[in-house]
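Appendix B: complex inputs.
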Amino acid sequence: MGHDTQFQAKSKKQYEYDRHHNAVHMRKQVVNFAIMIFLTFLAFAVVVADFSAYFIKPVILLLAGVQVVLQLYSFMHMDDKKASHMGVISTFVWFGAVIAFTMFLTFLTIIWW
Amino acid sequence: MSSAAVTNNKGFGATLWDYLTTVDHKKLGVMYLFAGTLFFAIAGFEALLMRLQLMIPNNDFVSAGTFNELLTMHGTTMLFLAATPLLFGFMNAVVPLQIGARDVAFPFLNSLGFWLFFLGAIFLHLSFFLGGAPDAGWTNYASLALYSPGHGIDFYVLGLQISGAGTLISGINFIVTIITMRAPGMTFMRMPLFTWTTLITSALITFAFPPLTVGLFLMLVDRMFDANFFDHTMGGNTIIWEHLFWIFGHPEVYILVLPAFGLFSEIIPVFARKRLFGYSSMVFATILIGFLGFMVWAHHMFTTGLGATANAIFAVATMAIAVPTGMKVFNWIMTIWGGSVKVTVPMLYALGFIPSFVAGGVTGVMQAAAPLDYQLHDSYFIVAHFHYVIVGGIVTAIFGSMHFYWPIMFNRALSEKLGVWTFWIFFIGFHCTFFIQHFLGLMGMPRRVFTYQADQGWDLFNFISSIGAILMAIGVVLLVINIIITAKSKPLNCRDYWGDGRSLEWAIKTPVPFYNFKQTPLVRGYDPYWLEKHDGNKEGMIYAEPLGDIHMPNNSILPLVMSIGMFVAAFGALYHPDGKAWAIPVLILGLAITVGAMIVRSVKDDLGFHVHVEEIVATEEHLYGNGGNK
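Resulting structure:
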């Protein structure tokens, strides 16, 4: 398959479209980056503010969960629906997460010491 | 390379070099098949020794220690080093042809996977000559393994770590191959069932082997560097090993049995001469089995005291697996039902498989009932159950598929007559050996004992069981004789040997050229070859592209070098706790070899080569005579 590679010069329209597309993409990237920094700051803030441990632990875990999702979908491009085999990739990532979670659950619940 | 394919007269050295460096999925398939058969024979021989020991009460044919080594190596070898590579052999040989691909997605990694598996296996077996084999059972429970003297367990840990890495690499390779390299028109719901089960199996490998790797690594540091993960006296917990092992171990069972299901799903429609009944439900059932396979591991540990709630949850989840499995069984029966059945050797194995596997499944559901499992646990009932599943399900699939796919893999056909004899002797031997073990278990005989007292009512049943084992051994020897005789027979040079092939692999004329299809085929529906035959297309397929240059990967010796590096490093790690001065240098040397080969691989561009149209035409004429593959 694909014996020849074709090269094509970009038209003006295409160039402008790409520029706009890249700008939108970059804006999204920066916004998500800011959110990440803010969430990290929050995590540190609750610790420094010296709240009860029963408050700090779930909040930090929640923030971590949000950051994982952001990381996967924004910075690792899982939100890019048009990329090839994105469905397969999501399936594998989330199936792996489910399995890892059952192990986590097991080690916390049914292993006695 | 391409000219080498045209000229056949190569010396021994050149042929050997070709096999050491090959990245061709067909050759690697053959190598997997022979390596798997070798370890199958070794592990089978170990089983025979065990059955001879248990033939009569108070026997002293082998000592208790040797018996422990035999049972451990039998289980470990059969599962990791015989069944897995034999199935990988078929996956390699068949799947790329079934989906109309030139090779797997990463041919280099395919070769690396094989060599890691092979050298890991050799390393494990060297333990017999270097102070004793592992002796804590194939499950290697930490409470036993940590206190096993000598290096047996270290061989187990390091050998499985290396061969497990090979399996993991191959699994990932097949996922990528099946998802990205299907021929145009081969949608997911047109993929043959064997391709589907290979995909799901590879996914299971990807998710199941990491827990094993972690478990083995913890065991390694526990034994070699005095860590205390599993030592309860130091605040560790021996149950953690059991969980890690079975989180891997239960999916491993499905890793083995799903390809077997796939192989039978190929064999049955061909010889029933009917479309596979309920294709989409078969696919759905495969996915469901794969998913549920991860949710049931604790049913191996009902008696460790997980508590009633956990036991109940895992019992119900385990029983749920019977539903998709039952769907599959009914679909196979419905495929045969009303078909114009040709009872060839592969079909015989398929017909033998269905009742045997169902028997294994039924005892499985019995054990899933946690209260009953307290009675059955660690008895011969368990041994009978998993041998019904593994021999009745997987070994029959492997033997049947050897007959089924031999024409594609070797361009020769195994003798039907000898095959029928093999089948009956093996099949009768199998039931003779294991059926009676159910009752031995119910009568209270524990598993993994090296001998037993006379007059407990076990004598006759053990004797019958051992006779059965001898019959099975005769069956296997007949199969090997069949293979040797066949090697001398005339090449077939035909397409669709069985006359009723349905999927793409039968559309190609044997011997299969190293680039597989000269033009990528176009798939117009499920069972593409059958569709084309039905439409009167003599060539068996229509093409998705004009005849053009084919891009193929270069051979490489680097996978073997990398694997040898790991092999050497394993010796260093093994002897380090003995305080040998050379241990650390050997470890470093081994890792340096591996890393060096990886650097060479990364730095040196290897873009493969093109087979030009003239060479393709010449190869086709050489293989198939004037006019090429028409």
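The longest strand of chain B covers residues 550-552.
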